């Protein structure tokens, strides 16, 4: 079942630039979909169509069967939670806890339940000790985690993440990795825009490559990331683990750093 569908979508910006050009795309329930491409490829524009922040100039975008042109952003956002690339564009409350509580209250969650959900989200993302802090005093990585916590607190059916690993340390990246896997295993949908192919490669998501507002590739990560020339044309390069696998002539590429380290250690001992 498709939860989000683009049908021949074209979006022209106010300055006349065509940011999306004849995009047709279906996102299914429980899928993890990565959207990659160079700067200006149309990735963020695509994401903003998923909860109605932007409307197509022509074509149709439907979310759970409802055309976005006919639905309010508030109604769409209840089911499709979007975390912006720039955290400062999303944060406005006086404390981290209030930031998480805002969406819950706005969607009519009872106060007691909202308090409980906010507390769980802050704890999970390692922000419980910062609950009273003004969000704008947090570090870049803490702000990003707060934005993710604020969206995850109301448990949307679809989580859309724009460059989620920017400013994140290793524990935070690992936590995010686990969140994405957990959502997928519970039949929820995750869409990730990212330049961080090292984060995406171990996830092995369905991968959509964009260039100049068009979808130029769509398929399993292992197939897409092995198309070296296509990646280069789209302003991308292979993940380092794949490059390392090629260098050592492995038919089965490394899918995790620990796996590569163990293999190389064993190879060194054998030699």
Task: Explain this structure.
- This protein is an alpha/beta fold.
- Helix content is 39%, strand content 23%.
- It has helices at residues 43-49, 73-79, 96-106, 111-124, 140-152, 170-185, 197-203, 221-224, 228-233, 240-247, 257-270, and strands at residues 2-12, 18-28, 32-36, 58-63, 66-67, 80-83, 158-162, 189-193, 206-211, 214-220.
- It has a 6-stranded mixed β-sheet, sandwiched between helices. Strands 2-1-4-5 form a 4-stranded antiparallel β-sheet, covered by helices on one side.
- A hairpin with a 5-residue loop joins β1 and β2 (18-28).
CATH superfamily of the largest domain: P-loop containing nucleotide triphosphate hydrolases
Structural class: alpha/beta
Query: What is the second-level CATH architecture of the largest domain?
Result: 3-Layer(aba) Sandwich
Question: How many domains, as an integer?
Answer: 2
CATH fold call of the largest domain: Rossmann fold
Largest sheet: 6 strands, mixed
CATH class of the largest domain: Alpha Beta
* Distance between the first and last residues' Cα: 51 Å
The gyration radius over C-alpha positions equals 20 Å
**Major beta sheet, strand line-up:** 6-7-8-3-9-10
H/I helix tally: 11
What overall geometry do the principal axes of the alpha carbons give? globular
Please give the number of β-strands.
10
């Amino acid at each position: 079942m498709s939860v989000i569908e683009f049908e021949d979508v074209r979006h022209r910006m106010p300055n006349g630039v065509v940011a999306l050009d004849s995009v047709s795309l279906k996102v299914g329930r429980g899928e993890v979909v990565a959207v990659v491409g160079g700067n200006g490829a149309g990735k963020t524009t695509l994401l903003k169509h998923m909860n109605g922040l932007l409307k197509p100039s022509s074509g149709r975008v439907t979310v759970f069967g409802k055309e976005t042109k006919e639905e309010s952003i508030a109604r769409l956002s209840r089911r499709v939670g979007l975390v912006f690339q720039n955290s400062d564009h999303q944060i406005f409350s006086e404390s981290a806890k209030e930031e998480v509580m805002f969406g819950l209250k706005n969607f009519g969650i009872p106060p007691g339940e909202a308090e409980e959900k906010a507390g769980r989200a802050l704890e999970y993302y390692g922000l419980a000790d910062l609950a009273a802090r003004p969000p704008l005093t947090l570090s870049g990585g803490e702000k990003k985690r707060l934005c993710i916590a604020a969206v995850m607190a109301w448990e949307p059916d679809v989580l859309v993440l724009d460059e989620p690993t920017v400013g994140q340390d290793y524990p935070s990246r690992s936590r995010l990795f686990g969140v994405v896997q957990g959502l997928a295993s519970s039949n929820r949908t995750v869409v990730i825009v990212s330049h961080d192919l090292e984060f995406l490669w171990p996830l092995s998501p369905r991968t959509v490559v964009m260039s100049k507002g068009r979808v130029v590739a769509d398929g399993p990560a292992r197939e897409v990331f092995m198309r070296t020339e296509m990646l280069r044309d789209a302003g991308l390069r292979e993940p380092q683990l794949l490059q390392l696998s090629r260098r050592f002539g492995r038919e089965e590429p490394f899918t995790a750093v620990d796996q590569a380290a163990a293999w190389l250690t064993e190879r060194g001992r054998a030699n």
